[in-house]
Amino acid sequence: MGSKNAITKEWVEKHLRWRVEFDPVAALLERHGTGRDAVWTTRDLASLSEHERMCLESYDIVRGNVDKSDDSLETVVKPRWYAKDKALELCARSLGMLKDVVEVQGLAERKERLRAALAKPPSED
Fold first, then answer.
1. Which of 15, 49, 83, 108 is the most buried (most CB within 10 A)?
2. In this structure, what are the phi and psi dihedrals at residue 97, rounded to the nearest 5 degrees?
3. What is the pLDDT along the chain (125 residues), one digit of tens a residue?
4. Quick one: three-class SS letters along the chain?
């Protein structure tokens, strides 16, 4: 037999709680200093936790002149984060944690028309 599926209701609940608490900006940036003297640097990707790395889809590193008043080149990191919410929603639905309510309107009228159509004798052509 194959291995047992590791996705349980508890696993989904844990990841939903973590997703609400997750702050992608804080995950990738470190602040050095305070106030106007603060400098933000990018954390080393190897220092990110497993959950933080799982949410990072990709990133671009761009070199360019950010401040037009000087002629220096700066490095800008542009992270892209996975939309984990949809995957968790699908897992929760498959485990029966979320259920859609379907409301059918006009069902009584449709039943009546069907009964009337079935009650008519077949026409001969």
1. 15
2. -80, -25
3. 455 667 787 887 777 777 667 777 677 788 888 888 888 887 877 788 877 777 778 888 888 887 778 888 888 777 787 776 777 787 788 788 888 888 888 888 988 999 998 888 877 65
4. CCCCCCCCHHHHHHHHHHHHHCCHHHHHEEEECCHHHCEEEECCHHHCCHHHHHHEEEEEEEEECCCCCCCCCEEEEEEEECCHHHHHHHHHHHCCCCCCCCCCCCHHHHHHHHHHHHHCCCCCC
Q: What token pair was written down for 65?
A: 């002149």
State which amino acid sits at residue 116. A
> Whole-model pTM?
0.43
The answer for 113, left when phi > 0, alpha when psi is -120 to 50, beta otherwise, is alpha
* Residues 62/79, Cβ–Cβ less than 8 Å: no
